[in-house]
Amino acid sequence: MKKFNLLYKVSFALILLFSSVTLFSLNSCAPSKAVAAKSGVQLWSENCQRCHNTPSPATFSPEIWETVGLHMQTRALITDKEREKIVEFLKASR
């Protein structure tokens, strides 16, 4: 019984430790002020050209750009705000 109690306490302590580390890691992913101040065109040119040639804004309809933005957000690891700025730029530049 004492071994079970000790194992339970150690397991609980490890869960708390890893939970706090995970929360700290998630908070450190917040965009910096420098990134938040960038325009959609800046974010588009910096993020989209890392992996491929950037298509013309006229390539897709505004609705398709929304879908592309959601897909590429997960691939490029950008924030919701960055995605919104990029998609708004692409939609306005058609």
Keywords for this entry:
single chain, 94 residues, mainly alpha, Cytochrome Bc1 Complex, Chain D, domain 2, 71% helix, 0% strand, elongated
Would you kindly provide a written description of the structure presented here, covering whatever features stand out?
- With 94 residues, the protein is mainly alpha-helical.
- The protein folds into two domains: 1-30; 31-94, Cytochrome Bc1 Complex, Chain D, domain 2, CATH 1.10.760.
- 71% of the residues lie in helices and 0% in strands.
- The chain has five helices and no strands.
- The chain has helices spanning 2-27, 33-36, 40-48, 62-76, 80-92.
- The longest helix is centred in the first third of the chain and has 26 residues, at 2-27.
- The protein is elongated, with a radius of gyration of 21 Å.
- The relative contact order is 0.13.
